[in-house]
Each structure stands twice: as structure tokens, then as C-alpha cells.
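User: I need a structural model of AB hydrolase-1 domain-containing protein from Glycine soja for a docking pre-check later this week. Nothing fancy, just the predicted C-alpha cells so I can convert them on my end. Input:
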Amino acid sequence: MQKPLDIEVLIRYLDTKKELIDELGIYILQYDRAGYGESDPNPKRSLKSEALDIEELADLLQIGSKFYLIGVSMGSYATWSCLNYIPNRLAGVAMIAPVINYLWPSFPESLIKEDYRRKLIKWSMWFANYFPRLLYWWVTQKWLPSNSVIEKNPAFFNKRDIDILETIPGFPMLTKNKLREQVVFDTLRGDWMVAFGNWEFDPLKLSNPFPDNRSSAHIWQGYEDKVVPSQIQRFVTQKLPWIQYHEVPDGGHLIVHYSGLCEAILKALLLGEENLSYRPRPEVFVS
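Assistant: Understood. Predicted C-alpha cells for AB hydrolase-1 domain-containing protein:
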């Protein structure tokens, strides 16, 4: 099974910046969550199991009592879980275009009521939970649009994202050939169920795990992200002021691929350096 593309791209891009890695004196560890790569599937996966898997891996590899954690898109739900279950192990965290869960109880209805993504996720969760075989049949039908059509769809990606998609492999795990592999389908379904199901905690009520300001937490978001709305992400960081919010003005959901962004993320996370280019623009309200 192929590894999550977003993490692969992050690692691959940072490999081209070896001088920065050497300068910071760091190394990057990529791990396969349950069901990905060579990791065994876990049908009973949960938010807590994701955090404990990370903690166990850190201990087995003896990387130290604290470590930094970077989560990208869907992988960010594991980062939220670590902030809740193992905050004492974290030296700092960064989430890049992190998914949000419309079931988080602290979201006001007025903020999410008209968001069409909420309805799409609700129906997808219903099928994934009650009719997984029907969902499997549906996503693997030959007459449905291919993932290449999805990738070019402006409903999901802005212009800059679509340009990026011309230069990267895309989303190999979402091809019909891959989805026909039951283990791939089950892994993606399990991810979806955990990420968008009922959480055991409310992320918007988490306490600051870095009260001494020796470490930091960050969210990086594209202002034009069509998968995760920037206005909702802003609300998240308003509720959690200990998370530093960075915004790419013309960025979509694929900001992790943008030139220079990974360097800015590492410098903010490890050195506390703020790149003013990613300071969020003020909201303008017209009456």
C-alpha cells in the first residue's frame, strides 16, 4: 500500500533543503499510521490509539522524552489527539491545512450551518458507517469520474493548487485500482470514520500544553482553501489563542507543496521566526 502522499511530499521537499536541516541540527522521522505502508491495519483504531502509537514509536526508537510533530491535512487529527493525550511528550506542533470536524461541540451553528462540506461529510459518514459495501461499490464503479477529474475540479482546488497538480503524482491511493484493494478501502474508511466521527474530547477546549512559551503550536492555512474553509480555521485559533495562525493569501489546500513554505514552517516551529508574508490578512465586513 502506498504511503500518504502529503507526508511523502513534505519529506521529499525537505530533502532538497538539506542545508537547512543541517543548519537546524534535526532529522525527520516519517511513520506509517495503521494500515498505511508496512503498518498493520487496526480495525479498532481511535483518536487515542493514534496518539499512543506515536508515543510507543518514539519510545521504541529512543528519540527522547519530547519531540516535534507535524500533521498535514487528514493526518492532523492525530496531531490534535496527541495534544490531548500526550501533551507532555510534545516539544511543539504544526498543522498544515488541518481538517476540521463539524461535530466539534464548540462550533456555533451560525458558523457552519450553510457550509455545504458539512452535508457532504454527514452523508459520507452515514454510508461509511451503515452501508460500507454500498460505498465500496460506488467508489469503484468504472462509470464514475476518475480521480484525475477530481484533481482538476475547481470545487476542491484553487488555481494555484491546480497548477501544483501538474507537477506532482496526485493522489495514488484514491485511484480506482487502489480503492478496489479491500485493505486500501478499509484503511481510508477507518481514517474517515475517526477523523469525522464523534471525538472523545473537544479540541477547542484544550489547554495550552506550552505555558512556559518554550515551545509553540502552529496552524498553516490557505486563505482560498476549498476543502477546509479559512474562516473556520480562524475561529479555531481565536478559541485557542496559544496556537499561532499563519495564512497563505493565495493558497488552497495543497500549500504544503508551495515553494518556501516548508522552510517557513520549520523556522517558525523550531526558531520562533515569523515570516510576515504569512501573517493573516484582516477580515473586512461590508454592511
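Before docking, keep this in mind: The chain has two domains: 5-100+199-269, 107-194.
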